[in-house]
Amino acid sequence: MNSKKIYKANGLALLQRSTLFAGFSETELLDLYPALQPVLRRYTKDSVVIDEGDAAGQIGFVASGRIAAGTR
């Protein structure tokens, strides 16, 4: 399996585990996949994912671990 197919399989698996997409069939998720343009990212502990006041052009899902909101 090439890296593009592995990436898509991982992104699809993440969507399938999400409560937001619960009830969607694999076919429906595959149809939505191009519009969602999922990007898998890894962050180290205490990384800033987005700063307060920044425009968010994407929706984020936490695949594992925890995320906390805070202010500086």
TrEMBL record:
<dbReference type="InterPro" id="IPR018490">
    <property type="entry name" value="cNMP-bd_dom_sf"/>
</dbReference>
<dbReference type="InterPro" id="IPR014710">
    <property type="entry name" value="RmlC-like_jellyroll"/>
</dbReference>
<protein>
    <recommendedName>
        <fullName>Cyclic nucleotide-binding domain-containing protein</fullName>
    </recommendedName>
</protein>
<feature type="domain" description="Cyclic nucleotide-binding">
    <location>
        <begin position="20"/>
        <end position="72"/>
    </location>
</feature>
<dbReference type="InterPro" id="IPR000595">
    <property type="entry name" value="cNMP-bd_dom"/>
</dbReference>
